[in-house]
Amino acid sequence: MDVLLDDPRTEQRYQADGYMPYWAQPWPGAILLAEAIMRGEPGRGRPAIEIGCGVGIASVLAARMGWAVTATDYDEDALAYARLNAERNAVTLAGTEIIDFRVPLPEPAYDLVLASDLLYEKRNCEPVAHWIASALRPEGLAMLSDPYRTAAESFADHARDAGLTLRMERVESRAPAGLHHRGRIWYVTRPES
User: DSSP string covering 16-46, please?
Assistant: First the structure.
């Protein structure tokens, strides 16, 4: 990520829209989410999507677990890296796509929605909750992780306002390389209407 911060193109993009190459780092929430995915049920080819995939850790693990995963981010460079990560780990993604989680989908299309460390700013909580409500099929599951960021505290209220049901689990990890990560996984469902 440091190399990208020194790139003049990053400065230009920052001046245009506040862009930062956050995708270029394996965040603690991605490790926590990947471990939760491995403890979860097999995908059996069902459709899944990761929003804000970054380097693609959760997408790759979900694909390994049998989900047909579309990895998404707002940055084409992140998607290129996620594709490379999948290739190097011998898994196939259903696809990659640039999305803006502030724009809801026209209809629910996914049985699994994944997001890690996406609630790093309070302003993300409401649009992420509404995007999940637009994307998640009834009986589907969304899993979001965060390392106890105070910015994420309002997510639960926004999720409920969007008609979603959720529970939170506190998690810890000592992977990779023995680093200790603490955080929470939000398990979000969309009850059948």
Answer: HH----GGGS--HHHHHHHHHHHHS---TT-
Q: Are 51 and 101 in contact (CB under 8 A)?
A: yes
Return the HEC string of 106-131: CCCCEEEEEEECCCCCHHHHHHHHHH
d(CA 166, CA 163): 10
Give residue 162's identity as a one-letter amino acid code: A
pTM for the model: 0.89
Q: In angstroms, rounded to a whole number, what is the distance separating the alpha carbons of residues 168 and 185?
A: 6
For residue 94, what are the domain limits? 22-189
Per the domain annotation, does 180 fall within a domain? yes
Written as one letter, the residue type at 146 is D
- Establish if 121 belongs to a structural domain: yes
- Provide the token pair at 41: 């049920």
pLDDT, tens digit, 9 for 90 and up, residues 129-187: 999 999 999 989 999 999 999 999 999 999 999 999 999 999 988 776 667 889 999 99
